[in-house]
Specification:
The chain is an alpha+beta fold. It has helices spanning 10-18, 23-32, 34-41, 45-53, 76-86, 135-140, 243-246, 297-300, and strands spanning 58-63, 70-73, 99-104, 107-111, 117-121, 128-132, 143-149, 167-174, 177-184, 189-190, 194-197, 211-213, 216-221, 225-230, 235-240, 253-257, 264-270, 273-281, 287-296, 315-320, 327-331, 335-339, 344-349, 358-361. The strands form six sheets. Strands 7, 8, 9, 10 and 11 form a five-stranded antiparallel β-sheet that branches. Strands 3-4-5-6 form a four-stranded antiparallel β-sheet, with no helix packed on it. β5 and β6 (128-132) form a beta hairpin.
Length: 373
């Protein structure tokens, strides 16, 4: 299991052998073999590994708690290392703690208690970028949310993947307007504020993480709208979410990339049923919401039909993967990770108090720095 045989491509051999291996399987050969060490240390190796595997695995999820943020590992030693690293996230001063807001493209976004500052954190490298929130958002905002992502169109790595640029999109409501602006790590500055009128003064951006669908970011807004931020021209628009279709779900609903295609979708739970909706155009080119799938969860997850208390919610959508490929469901017996396409599921914790989770997906390659090579 040491070096590739003579005449083989280093890139191909490294990727094929490392497919599906755990961190320790990468470390051991790299520690004893010079050629393996050079492969793993190559700045472009992680990029080629990502292209080979396509979708990174979900290593676990972050969640906020009254004492400090936590990470629940789902698989491998990598998740355990991230769980240890998250305990070091502390602030100086009175606030004392960061709160998770979003996770995407290998980075986590956190905020201070008063939304005065944001922190973009790479759990793998521990690199941190601190960003001051604009005064207009701090002083006039009724509610806030934010997202972190790679710049639009930046699918390649260009060298070191982990030092690639990032954007942060901040959204908030003030009076009868929804307002957004975008921060670029390349310029280290916020862009111009853009705004749009909301259907009513009571509209607020929900605190749950948004969804990236193509070149648009989406957040639930009020009871009957979805806020869309277009990354290419930095504009806000509203998408209708009819009350007659979706009021039955109350707040047990999340925006997601549609399972039926590449467009906008919604995932919602009613009692013990998971409903997957898609926004599609009809033959008149008019967009409408279509129910794609209805999944009964009580028999699949073997959930008790008797609720522990009157009025409790038996199944709650706590989080979604970046591509909507996994759903985290809080139940009366614990938290499950559920794959709708394969109908597979796994209990990840028996904690029934977690409301919102921030799934973290990435390839974990340890920093191999052996001596004497």
């Amino acid at each position: 299991m040491c070096a590739p045989t003579r005449g083989e491509s280093t890139e191909k051999s490294g990727l094929e052998v490392l497919r599906g291996l755990e961190d320790e399987d990468i470390l051991i050969p790299a520690l004893v073999c010079k050629r393996w060490h050079r492969i793993v240390r190559d700045p472009g190796f992680l990029c080629r590994l990502r292209a080979f595997h396509r979708a990174p695995p979900v290593l676990g999820f972050f969640h906020n708690s009254p004492d400090f943020p936590n990470f629940v590992a789902i698989q491998g030693m990598s998740g355990i290392r991230i769980a240890a690293a998250v305990r070091d996230l502390r602030m100086d001063g009175a606030g004392g703690m960061w709160w998770f807001v979003d996770c995407r493209h290998g980075r986590a976004l956190l905020r201070s208690r008063d939304w005065a500052d944001l922190l973009v954190w790479d759990p793998i490298t521990s690199h941190r970028s601190f960003i001051a929130v604009p005064d207009q958002a701090r002083e006039g905002a009724f509610d806030c949310n934010a997202a972190v992502l790679r710049p639009s169109g930046a699918t390649g790595c260009g060298g070191d993947c982990r030092s690639s640029p990032f954007n942060v999109v901040l959204v908030f409501t003030s009076g009868s307007c929804a307002i957004a602006c975008m921060y670029s790590s390349a310029t280290r500055a916020w862009g111009e504020f853009v705004s749009i009128l909301t259907p009513s003064l009571q509209c607020e951006v929900t605190e749950e993480p948004g969804a990236l669908v193509g070149d648009e970011l989406y957040w639930l807004l009020g009871e009957s709208s979805i806020l869309e931020f277009r990354l290419n021209d930095q504009r806000l628009t509203l998408v209708e979410r009819p009350l007659e279709k979706f009021s039955v779900y109350k707040r047990n609903i999340r925006v997601v990339k549609s399972e039926c295609g590449s467009g906008l979708g919604l995932a919602a739970v009613k009692n013990f049923s998971l409903h997957l909706w898609a926004r599609e155009a009809d033959h008149h080119d008019t967009a409408k919401w279509v129910l794609c799938r209805e999944i009964e969860l009580n028999t699949l997850l073997e959930l008790p039909l008797t609720l522990p208390r009157v009025g409790s919610i038996p199944v709650w959508i706590s989080g979604l993967g970046e591509d909507g490929n996994v759903v985290f469901l809080r139940t009366t017996v614990g938290m499950f990770i559920f794959w709708p396409k394969t109908m597979e599921f796994k209990m990840v914790t028996n904690n029934v108090l977690i409301k919102t989770v921030y799934p973290y997906a990435n390839f974990y390659l340890p920093q191999v720095v052996p001596t004497g090579l």
